[in-house]
Amino acid sequence: MTFFSDQYSALVNKALDQEPNTDRWLSASGSGADDIERRYALGQEQTAQYVVWSREHQPAIWQTSEGKQALELYFEVEIGGVQVRGFIDQLIAEADNSVRVRDLKTGAMKSKFQLETYAVAVREAFGVAVNRGDWYLAKRGGLSRPADLTQVTAEQVGEQYAEMDAGVKAGKFEPRPGFLCRFCDVKHKCSFFR
Ligand code: SF4
User: Fold this and answer.
1) How far, in Å, from the CA of 183 to the mean position of ligand 1?
2) Most C-beta atoms within 10 A of its C-beta, which of 96, 108, 142, 179?
């Protein structure tokens, strides 16, 4: 718990150095200052809950061939002709010698495409089978239902990356103003923001 509190305070202070005006901070509800306090309490609660869950369920963290635990595991692979880099929260060793990709979520938004990307990346970068993925949902203090990733292929995920890449290169950025604008990093500069 102390670790969470220290990290949270250090990161908030670092961010305050960059943007002291908390009214300009992105916030799901209320002012930026209120959000800092609210998330501090929520983070402590969710961290404690995760520790309890983890002790009870003892997730079997997979290890790479170099003996590195697959926590926040970095990968860099080419998918659909695009260099894709990222960090996977956890890889779990499964009884059938495959690994399960796991994303830890504090919010409610889940992306199946993210798990599909991880599946393709793990097969490519670490040469191990991936059949399932899931999310640890901090709001509920437990796992989601597992997602079947057996049918996900590099070609299928690659097509989506190639399409996104072509859109970026062509300068095609179709605005889709709506609910998600409130979480958008560039809303201060966006004329479509509402
Ligand atoms: S604020 Fe602008 S760029 Fe951001 S999500 Fe909304 S429409 Fe898109």
Assistant:
1) 9
2) 142
Q: Does domain 71-169 have CATH number 1.10.3720.10?
A: no
Phi and psi at residue 161, in whole multiples of 5°?
A: -65, -40
CA of 173 to the centre of ligand 1 (A): 10
Structure tokens at 1: 């718990």
Q: How far apart are CA 124 and CA 77, in angstroms?
A: 7
Hey, where are the domains in the chain?
A: 2-57, 71-169
The secondary element (H helix, E strand) that includes residue 17 is helix 2-18
Q: Is the CB of 175 under 6 A from ligand 1?
A: yes
